[in-house]
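User: Can you predict the 3D structure for this chain?
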Amino acid sequence: TTDAGPTYPEFVEPADPAPADPAATEPPADPPAHPR
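Assistant: Here is the predicted structure, written as structure tokens:
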């Protein structure tokens, strides 16, 4: 990216693009309990 001119949020490149499958990165809704 260059600083030549104003930057528009619509065209600004995301520094950390969202993964193709967000569910893969999200932790399990109900993690298994630790065995005692």
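The two ends are 53 Å apart (CA to CA). The chain is about 10% helix and 0% strand.
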